[in-house]
Specification:
The chain is α/β, with parallel strands linked by helices. It has helices spanning 2-46, 108-119, 136-140, 152-157, 161-171, 182-189, 191-200, 217-227, 251-255; strands at residues 63-69, 124-130, 144-147, 178-179, 231-234, 247-250. Strand 1 (63-69), helix 2 (108-119) and strand 2 form a beta-alpha-beta unit. The chain is extended, with a radius of gyration of 33 Å.
């Protein structure tokens, strides 16, 4: 009986030792985790915040932000607009078949200015203006003026060449603090310029025929045939939107 009892005790001890040995890595990992968590908490407790909220110093005045608004094709979803959206800034009767662009009375340009003012009323003062109100002297009074497409291109699209000339003068004058800057604006407006530079930088672009110095329809059609395209799309390379001046179709239809 005694031998059998000792044998059982030895077996139990062997099992316990094997179980303890198997559990050792897990126990070490848990212990390391506890230590790491304690260290992280200690570091977080002792660390200083990256920034703290400081009220704008009195006497310096607010940062003046200009918002050029009035385009009718960039609406926001009804219900997301500011509750105090001024009635004079709403685009009325801009729905149904008579709507301009995507319609709607609440638009992104005004909404951006209202949100800046609501989030930081102690820092920013917003100067809302329509395209017709834009002058060099007015913009010069602002620290920055954001143009949400109330620019010379829209004035031209609206068949207002004199307004377009005035806006071009304002946009190209660095003293007006106009955003976007003139060089960036021109880069975006010249499609062939930015597409070529993107291609050079390794950014994939759709296969394109760049037409410079005038448009010769027969010469372009020959280039399209040489590409082997069964259909194509042509659009103006500078300052055009919403399908103005475009043409597209099957290559064979144009050949015939």
């Amino acid at each position: 009986w005694l031998k059998r009892h000792l044998r059982i005790l030895h077996q139990r001890r062997d099992v316990q030792q094997r179980m303890a040995k198997a559990a050792m890595p897990v126990m070490k990992a848990k212990a390391s985790k506890v230590i790491a968590v304690k260290k992280a908490k200690a570091i977080m407790k002792s660390a200083q915040p990256l920034f703290k909220k400081v009220a704008a110093p009195s006497g310096l005045g607010k940062i003046r932000i200009g918002i050029i608004h009035g385009k009718v094709f960039d609406p926001i979803k009804v219900g997301t607009h500011d509750r105090n959206y001024p009635g004079k800034f709403k685009i009325k009767n801009n729905t149904g078949p008579n709507a301009d662009g995507w319609g709607g009375q609440y638009h992104a340009d005004v909404s951006t200015g209202l949100k800046i003012a609501r989030l930081h009323p102690d820092i920013f003062e917003i100067d809302f203006m329509e395209m017709k109100d834009v002058t060099e002297s007015r913009l010069a009074k602002n620290h920055l003026t954001f143009n949400f497409w109330g620019d010379m291109s829209i004035a031209l699209m609206n068949e207002k060449p004199e307004l377009a000339k005035r806006l071009m003068k304002v946009q190209s004058n660095p003293a007006t603090h106009h955003v976007p800057s003139w060089d960036y604006y021109e880069w975006i407006m010249h499609k062939s310029r930015y597409m070529k530079q993107c291609t050079k930088a390794g950014i994939p672009m759709i296969d394109t025929i760049y037409v410079e110095n005038g448009f010769d329809a027969r010469a372009v059609l020959k280039k399209i045939q040489a590409k082997g395209w069964d259909k194509f799309f042509v659009k103006p390379g500078y300052m055009s939107f919403f399908g103005a001046g475009t043409i597209n179709g099957r290559t064979q239809d144009f050949v015939d």
